[in-house]
Sequence to fold (517 residues):
Amino acid sequence: MTSASGLLRDVFGFDAFRPGQEEIVQAVARGENVLAIMPTGGGKSLCFQLPALMRDGVTVVISPLIALMRDQVRALREAGVAAGALTSGNTEEETDAVWLALEQGTLKLLYIAPERLAAGSALGMLRRIGVSLIAVDEAHCVSQWGHDFRPDYLRIGELRRTLDVPLAAFTATADAETRDEIVTRLFGGQAPRSFLRGFDRPNIHLAFAAKSGPRQQILSFAAARKGQSGIVYCGTRAKTESLAGALREEGHNACAYHGGMEAEARRQVEARFSREDGLIVVATVAFGMGVDKPDIRWVAHADLPKSIEAYYQEIGRAGRDGAPAETLTLFGPDDIRLRRSQIDEGLAPPERRMADHGRLNALLGLAEALKCRRQALLGYFGEETAPCGHCDLCDSPPESFDGTQAVRKALSAILRTEEWFGAGHLVDILMGNMTDKVRERGHDRLPTFGVGRDMSRAQWQAVFRQMMGHDLIRPNPDRHGALTMTDAALPILRDQQAITLRRDTVAKPDRRPAVRA
Ligand code: ADP
Ligand code: ZN
Fold:
């Protein structure tokens, strides 16, 4: 059986599970009856699509919306998965192709509209084709009192009994009454394994910081937590080695871990980490999937993770025992540049690259957030919450300012130099610095020259970083990372939209006093 994380990456193109997905996928793949309640947009479909690939035979998916089914089938086929739908919208050829695949035993996912269950022939057909799992999307449609009631959903319980296979039901409606009805009608009163837990991990403190002397930032963070087990995630293998060395020099018990190491050496680190107290593992993302240590007290990112999903998964390794745990994620313009170019230079098809940029933007939005970070994080996964009181932004709300004029000046500097330069030179232009490069190019004659003397270099750099974070500008890989404007910046340039920025970036000292051994 191919591993869930391997399929997640190779078939679906995701680098990490979203909150809750992994546990649900494992339970469904094992053949447990499952009821999962996830917010809309939380990523329910993956929770039955992925197990369908891990199990023998066909997974039957029942969903009330034909358009949605067709969308999912199309996306699955594009990813190389044998999926088909039997709905009223089918052409004859489509239906024939589905039947053929079923006869040949090649189909992995069969989507059917609930009305189909009413036709007597459907049951016989499903009995013959070797169904191994029934997945029910929008399971609340079985509730007679809800506004989405579908009488045909009442047949699903009978289908499950006849086929005698596990059933996984999904819905975003969490109220207790609906849940009870689902258990009664779909599972015949036998309580399924339920996943209703919210995504929040309230014991984990969240914090981001702009890089300013990143190595020292990590060292002070670790110094304040000496003797505690922690993980530092790095963007490159070389950095894991050098940072582990630097931590050892400061008297920590630290070792590196990355995919380039011998399997045996990696196993040793894993074994030491789970056995010993107070070991720091400095690792690439290769570390973690198999790590099941409940008392990891902190996780730091020396470099920005790949996506908001990867961030959540990586910080989620801290504090599984429920006791307080701390996190710190560093980020800077170089990270943004690196992550963008990794996406652009990857082999993924264009739509997937767009989606990857979107997931990176979500993480950058979180990094540059102005209010409670947990609210922003959970909001992305569809969960609404009040400000948490347990993140760096709740601890000390950042000062913000109307950045519209500053952003317009910066955009003007970019456009007047025809998108050929990086932030360093652009800041010189804005600040009116007569550098050699400015003189050679005649950029002192631009109307933008010196319009930004009211702000310091550090402040301008923060503006550029935040503009990247808001995806107003992107480095152009074909021009050595020169900054280009995105469409998102147009309304600001045209003065149709304002933008609020943070006045921050001077790294704040660590919240906690250092613990001296
Ligand atoms: P819903 O829970 O509303 O049915 P979907 O299954 O349609 O949500 O998923 C919502 C979006 O989240 C989709 O665009 C999907 O591609 C994306 N998604 C799902 N799982 C992941 C993941 N692990 N990493 C990144 N994106 C994901
Ligand atoms: Zn908060």
